[in-house]
Structures are given as C-alpha cells and as structure tokens.
Design brief:
The structure is a homopentamer. Chain A is an alpha+beta fold. Helix content of chain A is 53%, strand content 13%. Chain A has twelve helices and seven strands. In chain A, β5 and β6 (157-166) form a beta hairpin. The two termini of chain A are 63 Å apart. At the A-E interface, α9, α10 and α11 of A face α6, α7, α8, α10 and α12 of E.
Chain lengths: 399, 399, 399, 399, 399
C-alpha cells in the first residue's frame, strides 16, 4: 500500500481550512489564502501494500475508557502497552481505546500487534485520506472509515478522518488530530450513564460513534443553508461580484457530498451484511443512522440545486443591469445628439451675403427660439417613442 | 437520538411560511420576509438515541375516534389516560387516537408506555423534521412518517409532519400543529359511514389517512401549475424582472420534491414488504396510492423542467431586449452623427480670404441646400443599408 | 377515491387544445389562448376510494361488436342492459363493448355491476386523468389505462384517456369523448376479417387496441419532427423571436413524454407478469408493441435534445447579431467622431489677431484641403486598423 | 403490423443523406438541403400486424453463398426458388442467402414460406426503420435487426437497416439497398477461407456479420473525431459563425447514438439468453463484439460532451469579441468626445466686447496651444486611467 | 478481429502527447500542436477475429523475472524461446515475462503458442487501444487489459495500454512502448523482497501490477487539481482568455474518465467472479484496489464539476467586465455629450442684429461663466443621478 499520510505541518494547515465564507472574511482582512483540502495522496515509490506511512514522530494521545453497566474507568495512557490490562481483564467490560493524532509509527505498529489488526486494515486507519467505507476482516474485526466535519467559532469547516475498529469487547478509534472530534457527546453519555450505552456491547458503542459523526454534519449544513440564504439576498442586491462566492459554495458542497455519500453507503453495508459482529438490536439503531445519512444527502442535493439556481440568478441580474446601463446610454445619446446636430447646423458659416439660400434662418426674427423648439421637439418625440415602446414606462413602474 | 424539535415559536413562524407568490405580495405590502422552512435540525449535545426533545409545555389536543361497523364514538380527551378504555374494550372496534400538537413531554412519554412504542419509533414521531419513511417495529407496529402539504386562502404553502403508527386495532396519529391537517376527509367518512372504512381494520384506516395526505398534494400542485402559466405570460410580457420569481418557484418545487419523493418510496415499502400487518385487500388500495404518488412525481419533474425552460425564456428575452436597445442606439447615432460631422465641417472658420481653397463652398449659391441634401443622403444611405441587412425590416415585421 | 372527472365543458375545451404550432397560428389570427391540458385533478372532500365522480349527465354512446371467426355483429345500443345478451350467449364469441364519453353516472354503475368490475378499477376507468398503467384485478380482469394522441386537420394535438378492461370473452373500452379515437383501424380489421383478429381471443383484441394507441403516436411525432426542422431553419434565418416557439415545443415534448413513458412500462408489465389472461402467442405480439413504445421514447428523447440544442442555437444567434450591431455602431462612431472633433477644432474662434499662435492654420493656403486630408487619414487609419484585427474582413468574408 | 417502408424514391434520397460537414460543402456549392433521415414511419390505416408494406416493385438482388470447410459455392440467383436446393442438400453446408434491396413483395412472401419465418419476424425484416434488437422465434430462428453505417468518399454518412435471420444451417440477410453494405469483409473471408469461419456453424457466420456491422462504425466515429478537432480550431479562430456546424454535429452524434445504443443491448441479449442456437464458442466471440459496442458508446458519449464544450467555447468566444468591440468603441469615444467638447466650447460665439468674462481665452497669447494641451491632457489622462485599470494592458499583452 | 495497432510513428507522436497545460506552454513557444490521443482504431478490411495487426518490425524488449521466496533471477532475453526454461522448471517459482513494445509479429505469435493464449486474448493484448476489461479464458488464463497514465518532467500526460495475462505460475505483461511504465515499484519490491510478494502466487503479482497502475493515476490527478486551482485564480484575475484552457482541462478529464471508469469495473469483475485463479487472500487486496479506483472516480467527477463551475465563473467574469466597460462608456458620454451640446448651441451664428430674440445670451455680462455653470450642473446632475442609482457607488465600494 502506497498511501502517504500528510506530514503534520501540512495537516495542520489543512485543519485551518476555512470554508468559503470564512475565506472571504480572511481575504478582506488581507490574510493568506489557506491551502485547500487535498483530494489526492501521492504514493511513495515501491512500498508494498500494508506499509504505514508515518513521518510524524509526535506520539499520539491515547485515552482508554473501560466500562460496564456499573463502573467506568477513564485514563490517559502514555504507552500503548498500558491498554493491555483493560483488554484482557476477566470482567466482561467494553474497552474503548481512543487514539488521537497520527504520529509515532512504532505506536501504531504495536497497536496492530496488540489488537491483531490485518495489515490492510491498519494501513487504511493510518494513511489518510481514505474513502469512507466499512470492511470486515477475518470475521472478527469490523473497520469503519469515516469522516468527521465540524465548524469552529470562526465558521471554518474542518474535516478529519476517523477510523473505528471494533471487535467483541473493544472499540479502537484513530483520529487524525488530537485537538477536536465530534465524539464528546458519546464520552459524556458513557460517563453519565445516559441512555443504554453502558449496558450494551462494543457494536453499540461503534454505532453511537458513527451516529455522532453523521449528526455532526447537520450543524455544518445548517450553516450552509444560512449562507445560501445570505447569498441569495446579496445576489438580488448585487452590491458586489457574486460569482466567486457562489463558486466557492459549490466547491464546499462538492466536498461535503464527497464526504457524506460514501458514509451512507457504509452504513448501508453494515446494515445489509449478515455480520455476526453487529447485533440485531444495534441494526435497528443503525437504520436510524442510515435515515439521517439519507436526509443529509437530500439536503446536500437540494443545496446544490439551489446554488446552481443562484448562479443563474446572478447571471440574469448582470444581464439586467447591462440592459439598464445601455438604456441610460441610449437616453443620454437621444437627448444630446439631436441637440448637438441641430446646433451644429446653425453653427455653420455659410455666407448669407453670397446667396439668399444660405442660412436665411439666422436672420429670422424668431429663428433662435424656433431652434430651441425644434431641439425640444426632437428630444420629446424620441423619448415619447421610447415610452410607447414601453422602455421608460418599464424603467419607472417595473423597477 | 439527538434531534431537536423546533420550539413552538419557531414552528409557528414556519406555519406562517408562504410560498413565493404569496411572499411577493407580502413584500410589496412592505411585510417582513418570513423565515424559510428549515432543512436542518441541530442535535443537542450528548443525548442518547430515543431522547424526546420537547421544550414546549403546551399540552397537545387529543381526540379519540372509536368505531366499528355499527357505532362511532368521538371525543376530545384531556389526559392520555382516558384513551386506555377505548383500547382495552372487548369490542373489536378500531381506535384512532389523534394527537394534535407536539408539546408536553410527559404526555408523549405516557403515550409511549400505553402503546408500548419502541423508543426509536417514538423519537421519530416527535422530533421533527424526519424524512418520510415506513418502518416496522417488532412485527407489531408499523410507523409511517409522512408530510402533509396544504395551501390556505392566502396561497401560503404549509407543510407539517404527520406520524401514523398502527397496530392490530388502533391507529395513533401525531401531527405537528393542532390547527390544520388534511385528514378531515377521513373523519368525515368515518362519521358518515361512507365507503367501507367502518367495516375494515386499522391498516385500512392508516391507508385512508396516507391516501388523504398524498391527495392533499394535488391542489398544491394545481396552484403551482397555474403559477407557472402566469409566470410564462409575465416572462413574455417582460413587465418586471422575472428571475427572482422563477428562482423562488424552483425552490418551492425542490421543497415539494423533497417531500413527495420519499413518500412514494414509503408506499412502495409498505406494498413490497411481506408485512402481516397489512391485509391483501388494503395492499390493493395502497397500490392506488402508489400510483398517485408516482403521478405527483411526474408532475413535479415536469414542472421542474418547465421552470428551467422559463429561465431560458427569460434570459433569451433579456438578450432580445438588449438587441433592440442597441439597435435604437445605433440608429440614433447613425442619424445624428453624420449630420453633426457635416455641420461641424462647415462651421470651421477657415479664412476664405487667405486662399481660394479655404471653404469656397460657403460662398456657393446653393451651398446651404446642398449641405442639407448631403446630410439627408448620408442618413438615408445608412438606414437603407441597415434595411438591406434586414435590421429595420425585422424591427417592423418581426416584432 | 377522490379523483374528479372534469366537467364536460372543461373537457371540451381540453379537446380543443392545440399544440404550439397551431396555437401560434391561432394567436396570429387574434384567437384566444386555449386552456392548457390540466396535469392535476382536484379531489372533492371526503369521498371514499371507489367513488365515481361524474357530473355530466349526457349518456355515453355505446357500441357493441360481437364476433367470432365467421360472424360479426355490430350495433349501437341505447342502454347498457342491451349488451347482456351478447355476453351470456353460448357462442364462444368475443364481445367488444365500446363506451364513448364519460357521462351519466348510472350507466357506469350498471356497467360495473354487469361486468363485475372492482370498484377501484371502475374508478380508474372513469376518473380522468390517470397515469397510464396495467393492473390485474382478481385474476380475472386486466385493466389497461392508456392515453391516445391524435393530430387533427388543424395540426391540433388531442390526447384523451382510453381504458381497456378485458376478461376471457369480452373487452370493455371506455374513452373520454365520443367524437374521436385511434381504434378505427381495429374496427376496420374486425369488420373486414383482415389478419387473424377474428380467430383469436379477447387478449388479442386488447393487444390490437393497445397497439393502435401506441402506433397513433407516430404521426404525432412525425409532425413534431417536421416542426423541429422548420424551427431550425427559422432560428438560422432569425426572422422573428424564436424563444417562445422553442419553449412551446419543449412543453409539448414534455407532455408527450409523460404520456408515452408509462405506456412503455405498462406494456412491459403485461409482458412480464405471469398472467394467465394473456396467451403466449399474444405476448409475442405485445413484445412488438413494446419495441414500438421504446422507439417512441427514443424519438422523444432525441427531439428533446434537439430542442435544447435549438435554444442554444437561438441564443448564440442573438449574441451574434448583437456583435454585428455593435460592430456597425463602432464603425459609424469611428467614421464620424474624428471628423466632428477635427472640424470642431477649426471651428474655434481664437482671435488670430491676438497672437500668431492662435490658429494660424486658418490662414494657410492649403489649410482647408489639409483638414479634409487629415479627416480622411484618421478614418482610413482606424478602419484599416480594424481590418487588420480581422473585424471588417470577417464581416465581408465570413458572414 | 402497420409500418410503412419508404417508397424507393424517398429511400434513395435518404441514401444520399450527408452528414453536417458534407451538407455544408453542399450548401456552399448552392446545392439543395437533402432530406433528413426520418425517425418516424407512418402506419397505413387498418393493416393487421404481420403485413408487409412493400410498394416498390423492383426485384431485390439475391446472392447465395453455400460453403463448408472444403467448398464454397457463390451465385446470384434470379428467383427465390433457386435457393431451395442449397437449403435442402444433404451436405452439412452453411447457406447464406443475401437479399439486397426491399422491393417486390411476392419475393419476400415466398422467402417467408421457404424459411418458415414468423409473420412478425418477416415484418420487422422488411418494414424499416426498426429499432435494433434481437429476438428468438419459436426456439428455431434468431432474428437480429441491426443498423449499418458507412461514410462514402464524399464524407456522407449512410445508414441502412440490416436484418440477420439465422437457423441451424442457414443465414438470411436482408438489407435496404443493393448498392452497399459493410459485409464485404465477411464475404472475402469466406471466399479466401481466412480464419475459422468456414469450419463453424451458422451462428458464427451471424456473429461475423454483426461484428462487421459494429466495426463499421469505427471509421465513421474517427471521421467525427477529426471533425470535432477541426471545429475546435475553427471556433478558436472564429472565422465564421460556428453554432450551426456545432448543432449539426450534435444531431449527427444523436443519430449515431440512437443507432449504437440498442446495438449494444442486442449483443448483450444474445450473450445473456440461454439460447441453444448460439454455441458457447461463438458466445466468446460475441463478448468481443459487445466490448466493441461498449467502446463505441464510450466514444459517442465523449464526443457528445466535447461538442457541448464546443458550444460553450463558441459562446464564450463571442462574448469575448463583444468585449473587444466595446473596448474599441469606448476608446474611440474617449479620444474624440473630449476633444469635440473642448473645441465646441471655444467655438462659442460669446461677444467678448460685451463683457470681459466672455471668453477672454480667445484673446490669450497662448490660448490655442493651451487648448491643444488641454485636449491632449484629457485624452492621455483617460487612456492612462484605462491602462491602470488593466484594459489596455490586457489588450496588448493578453490578447 | 479487425483492430489495427497504430504504426510505430503515430504511436510515438502519441507518446509525446502533452496535456493542456503543457500544450499551452508549447504553443506559446511556437511549437506544433501535437497529435491528439486517438479514440478510434480503423479495422483493416477482411481480417478474421484473432488477427494480429502488427506492422512494426522492431523486436520488443523482453525481460524475465523468475522468483520464489528465496531467489530472484532477472534477465533480458533476446528471443521468446529463452523464456521457456523459466516456465517449465520444476521449482514452484513465479515467472514474470515482461514484454515492452508492440512490434515484430512473429514474436507475439510465438508467445501465443508458448503460453497457449486464446487467439481473441492475444488479439486484445496486441491490437490497441482496447477498452480496459478483465476476461477469463478457458478457466486457466485471466486477461486484464488496463491503461497506465503518467506525467513526465514536462507535465505531459502519457497513457499506454498494459495487458496482464496470468496463469497458475506465470504473469505475462505486454505494454505498448518500451520506454516507460508504472511497474517499476513492483520490480523494486520483488528484487528487494519487500512485502509479501515473493511468497505469494502469480495472482498476487498480477494484483500488485494492477494496483501500481491504479495508484499511478493519483499523481496525475494531483497535477490536475493543482491545475484547476491555478485556473481558478487566473479566471478571477482575467488576465487572458480562459475558455480554451478550461475546454482543454475538460477534455483531459474526459480522457482520464474514459480510462479510469472501466478500470473500476474490471477490478469489480475480478472480485465478483468465482474465479479459482484468484485466491481469497488476493481478493482482499483487490478490494483495496477497488476502493482506490472508486476514489479516483470520485475525484474525476469532482474535478469535472469544478471545471464546469470554472466555465460559469469565466462567463460571469466576462459579463462583469462588459458591464464595467459599458459603464465607463456611459459615464464618458454623460460628461462630454451635454458639454458638446451646450457649447454647440452657443456656437450657432444667429444674427443678434436681426432680432432681439436671437441669442441675447451671447451679449450678457455673465453669459460665458453661466454656460460653464450650466455644463457643470448638467454633468454633476447626471453623475449624482447615477450615484443615487448605485452605479458609481458600486464601482467604488464593491469593486
């Protein structure tokens, strides 16, 4: 396997990624354009499948939560070895090993040994980005690759990969960065003993985590919805060029779609497969998660259509303003060109002493007032012709 | 489950939601833009699945209709407890418990206990909005989540969620608001004993309700159809900027589509599943409902294509008017620019005493009339050139 | 069932419906825009499924054709009762009861009794419009709801619903209006004994009728094809604004598509179902009808793409003409603006007696001719610059 | 069956059909627009299915090729009867009856009798155009309706229907016209004994013919590809209006797509069906033909997308040229309007003797040169403002 | 089989093919437009299926890598015969015969004999281009036709066909050109014994090669992504006409899509088929390759949508610039046309001695200053009217 994980620096700049509306504010503030979310991972040459590509040497933070219906033990451990006692104790407790950060290759290799993870599974957990998916390894482990999304206080969209591997009595989660995730709600519930999570198996915990990931998309989409509504108003007001923000919105929606669509498929795969690892009861809950993922897809597709409509609205608005500008230019020309022409005629220097036909008007008693009348008449005539054609009327009434 | 129900105020403003054409009238009257139908529900942190999120403390109105072929009893009850006698009586009657409004959490919790509703089912009934769907719980209950649409006298589109849960002898319906629903036609039929509803089971009642929901979309779409026809005329008349109304129409159609599409799927799911809860006879009727849902989809898709065509028509119309404006500007320029230029030439002050070549025309006997002729000739020449190119001809005949 | 049939007046105006190209002629002749084909039927409140909604009290015309290989009896009957002898005679004859017009409710109720039609089937036959479909009722009756299209001598497109219900020995057809249908070819064949229709069963007659319906679309589409070809020429000639006719064409194609698409599905349903009502031999013929329906779909989709292309062609043509107009305006300005400016300069009144620098040109011997040369040079210079940029060249050669 | 074959004259003009690029040359040469390929066949009234509609009385040319591994006999026969000996001989030879031209009804009726062709099959072979398809009749005959395409030396696209009917020991092909087909390569191979065709059954011969038909599309598409490349260059050069050629290209691609898409389906149908008529070995070869048909589809879809892109390119190019024209107009106006205005001011006739404020500039010593400076300054100022805005810079550098 | 391989010269120019961004640089440097990747292969007349069409007489380079867990032998062989010993040795080694270049027909015919390749399989390996696919021949050989992509140091996209045929103990690869491929990483791994490739069967080697091919697309797409980002910036800066580069980008994406889409299908086919040739373990790895192919498809589709958005952005930008140009023209006209008109009026030569009404203004004491005021007032009035309409304000603030 030849997938490279991003080095920590680039990952950090990725975590700073802001969605279009944040980007704009940043740009107005003169900030640098942040690096875009990479779609591609470049394989290093000649690495066999199952190779872990970790260049970062920072140890990840590892938390263990071990619980049964009665007791919860929670601890941050320094070394992977410390989680072994929790796994092999004779109590039928569920152990959640929560690895935050993708660094220090030996840690992950040791994890692979402790949990007996298939090399391909371990590679998928560690080498990011992977496409969200669910796979069963050896009938004993289920690996779910998922993608979390979050908006922070600066409206910035952050996505990071979350790998959930679970067996009979344990759940192992690996996330890209230590700083944030959407799983806090599940930790809360375990600590407080809310709901039935404490009385159920590892499959239910895995479900709860996946559900938290899917539900984490809803606030992001709500933000998107508000943004679309704002853009719509702005497009109609036409105060600034809108094609860039609309394009950015479309790209953000594409990114979300690429994250959500396979998520739906993976939940479906978990539901469909006759997997003894997932109890019938948990399946019922997963159906609920599936419904939510479908609802997310619906929303994203709706937003995508709305954003296409926004571009049409914008183009039509620009066309409309062009028409208005042209109308004004035409009216200005209509008023002043005839005046200039008539005035030009009576500015000619024909010698009226050479011929009685040479501009006798210049000597008429009412010559000058008549020229004024002529100018007025031509302008009024043209304007009323426009009004009859509905141009001026429209400009007054319709706009 | 982490879905929040909207607090009653926001739900109320949602119920005031007006479709685009109503919105426009409202805007002309200086009214505020009403809040848009939310697509997203924000989950509260750390709530386990099955949590009912009801912050509203208003008790819902509850009606019980208990009937068999001979007798109908109808009563508004104050407390949920009052419906128990209807459920456990030894008569083989059908009991329809009709809950209107989503408030007062204890009421719904008690409902869950009385009807032994699965926590996930109860959550879906209470936490709105859900995607329309049909689920079977424990082989005993069928839950149908549906969405009603109605236009009121002000052309306002209202949608609200309707949950239909039915077992062997009862139907429980939960709707978002107490004020309106589309189920009046079914109540009428039960009271009057029209049709066969009184002699059939709970599954038939559930069908009848679902059928009323689906049929309730037809008047809404008829309104849409009229609106499209009006817009088409307006686009051709081009009295006002049409891109906003067309965009609003498209959004309304998207909303309807998102409501109807899953409706079709849920009817199909009820038809397809080998569900012992639904009798073979009712299945025949459901097939009819399915046909209607498909017909709705057909209509919505047709309207969507028509509205896309409207935008094209509008853009082409604007382009057309631009052409006309430009033509007028060109003709105006064509008439007056040559005149101005010629008049300018004979307005020069060359001293004809300095040279015989200096503007001898000014002394010619017919100089001035000849200049007039020259002006006329240049204008007529250009205009006839245009006519030969088909510009003026088109302006006269074609438009 | 809550579907309303259109009252006869509205149905009549629907029958007057003309497609776009007829509409245009009518509009040019100052005629009223005819009412559009309704997509929606408004259900009356509180009617149970199976309700026949017939407000028209005109009795339909009823014809009976009773035939076997040897004899054909054909008769118009006054009352439904008269068809009973044909049905119960001991001869193994096929009886085709041909009901033309949807009025007089008791007639249809009696029909339902005589033929023992399922209430839902009867409703679908009578309440129009229904989506084309094929259903089997009780393993004894097959109901086919279809839609006929015809162009009359005024190029008007007429569509009406045709319901075909057949059992072992009878076919019952119900059409919306008495005046026209596409089944004449089948009547002809029965009377003349052409082909094998007389020696086969009711399923073959039903097939023959359905085949006539499907084949009836071909002349309509041929008309459409001619119309598209005409529009293409007109778009290139650009004699009149074409966006309205193209939009109308698109709408007509949408209407046809909505009629044909489900037709294909219904033939497919008849083919696929293991229906003992349809003999293996007739299935072979139905396959042929299916091929024709698919061919219709192909054509309609091709026409739809062509009509989209027409709009592009039209928009590009308008853009092109705008370019030409702008070019002419620019050339006019280019010729006359420099002349006006130069003439204006030598029209200034600087007193050459005040300074030797004040317009000494006015006293030069060749001053005036030189100005003419200057004007000519500036105009020729600009025009040759344009020609070098390819503008004028293009105008001459390319267009 | 009610399909009309085209009368020979119209078919002839159809054979003269030229694709867009040929059409253009023809149009430039003042030639008539040739009739388009008809999509529709108009059924004559009241003809039962299985009716052969042949009005042409020209006898078709009939060739018989009878071969086994050792011997090939090839003969043009005058009457259908002559082919009977080849069919009933006791040698296990394969007989290919090759009928070229669709005329002389008795011939085809006799063919139907000799080969015992099902009436519907015979109808499909004779009444053109049919949609390409493959059908099995009575488990003994396989009918393949296909469509050949060819470009002749004048770049004209010709399509004609080819019907291939084969049984155990014979293949009967019927083509529309006698003049050309794409089956020459197969005849060559039989005569020369190249490949294994001589040692295999009738199914292999049918495959070989179908393969020749599919492969015959490749040169046509190569031509299309060249044409697209040429159009691309022309669009960029913008020497002539390109929307018509692009539209024609799109229509030609639609035509090809309508011909190829069902071809793929028919090969797939032959592959999929458990048809004892086609040997397992031949199936392997058909898979190859299927791959080629898919490759054709890929190409056509790619070309369709490219042609859509061409239209965008063209529209954008026109928009671009409009911008350039407008820029030139603006610059012309910018240069000459200020000059005209300033010159106009000093062309006013205020009497400086009436007031010291009346145009004292006219008496200044450097008045006239200063006006020149003023004019120059205003023009240079505006133009440098444009350059700062990037207009002129862009015009020079970017274009 | 009638597929022609390209003669070596044309293949060479194809290998020089540069993607759009490289093409542009080349064009700027005055280079020739390189020949485009041909989509079509022209069949020679009358060649039976299975014909190898090789006109090139250059012998291909042939390398043999023979390995088991312990030993690796690698050798370039001169003649095909030399590979026989590797194949028939009694060691259970895997033999990879790596043929580079498509020339010298006898070599390939001999290869076919040595490996007992089905004629159709051999034809597909040799006659390029084929659509990527996977076929099983005789249950013993699996043929995978694939397409490699690579960017060289000059950003040029190169694609060439790679055929992988494998049996129990050998893998035969045939590539179009000798110069480059993407399989170096696999050779590296075999030589160095990295990963498990040396301990596994021929199916695993085939997988490893296919995986290298699929992974080879990632850097190409990364390049595409960077290019899209660059284009986006350029479109916003609008320094040069962008429609050509966007069109080229779209065409390149189409090409990639045509290469990748069937690749995904072929991996799926290998996974799905119950093929005894592929071990269960290798299937697990192939699933990984499938995921990567799907990820490639996702990326390409995303890029396609982004490139469509780019075109919209570009068109909207052009429209925007047109609006700006028109605004400037209108403002220029607005400033100078009124001045010219007013100046023209007072440049008329009415004889004030003939009438007191004839231009008395010319004698007023403040006549000339008042005219200046009048001019100023009219210009300021119009400009402030524009500012009130938001034109100038927008020009200052918004842009």
């Amino acid at each position: 396997m030849t997938t490279t994980s991003h080095p920590p620096e680039s990952r950090h700049s990725e975590s700073e990624l802001r969605t279009s509306w944040a980007r704009e504010r940043a740009e107005l503030a003169g900030a640098q354009r942040p690096k875009r979310d990479r779609l591609v991972h470049e394989p290093p040459p000649a690495s066999p499948p199952g190779t872990l590509v970790i260049e970062n040497t920072n140890r990840p933070k590892i938390f263990v939560i071990d619980y049964d219906a009665d007791v919860v033990a929670e601890k941050e451990i320094e070394s992977v070895e410390e989680c072994i006692p929790y796994l092999i104790d004779d109590r039928p407790s569920i152990t959640w090993v929560d690895v935050r950060g993708l660094g220090h290759k030996p840690t992950f290799e040791r994890l692979g040994e402790i949990f007996k993870i298939h090399p391909l599974a371990l590679e998928d957990m560690v080498n990011v980005p992977q496409r969200p998916k669910a796979d069963v390894y050896g009938g004993e482990h289920v690996l779910v690759i998922s993608r979390m999304a979050q908006v922070n206080e600066h409206c910035a969209l952050r996505t990071e990969q979350l790998a959930i591997l679970f067996g009979k009595t344990f759940v192992l989660t690996v996330q890209e960065e230590a700083e944030w995730d959407v799983m806090g709600v599940v930790r809360e519930r375990i600590r407080a003993g809310r709901g039935t999570v404490r009385t159920r198996g590892a499959d239910y915990l895995a479900y709860a985590l996946l559900d938290a990931v899917v539900d984490g998309f809803f606030p992001v989409l709500e933000r998107m919805g508000d943004h679309i509504e704002d853009l719509e108003l702005e497009v109609l007001e036409a105060k600034r060029p809108m094609s860039k923000p609309i394009h950015d919105l479309k790209r953000d929606l594409l990114t979300l779609r690429r994250a959500v669509w396979p998520q739906r498929d993976l939940v479906n795969a978990l539901l469909r497969d006759d997997n003894p690892m997932i109890s019938k009861d948990t399946r019922l809950y997963l159906r609920d998660t599936y419904d939510h993922a479908v609802q997310l897809m619906d929303m994203i597709e709706t937003y995508r259509e709305l954003s296409s409509g926004l571009m049409d609205l914008h183009l039509s608005g620009m066309s409309n303003r062009m028409n208005e500008i042209m109308k004004v230019l035409t009216i200005i020309s209509t008023i002043f060109l005839p005046i200039t022409a008539i005035a030009g005629i009576y500015g000619m220097n024909f010698h009226h002493e050479s011929s009685p036909y040479n501009m006798p008007e210049l000597d008429w008693y009412y010559g000058y007032p008549m020229v004024w009348l002529l100018m007025l008449a031509s302008v009024v005539g043209l304007l009323s012709y426009y009004r009859r054609k509905g141009w001026l009327g429209k400009d007054d009434d319709g706009r």
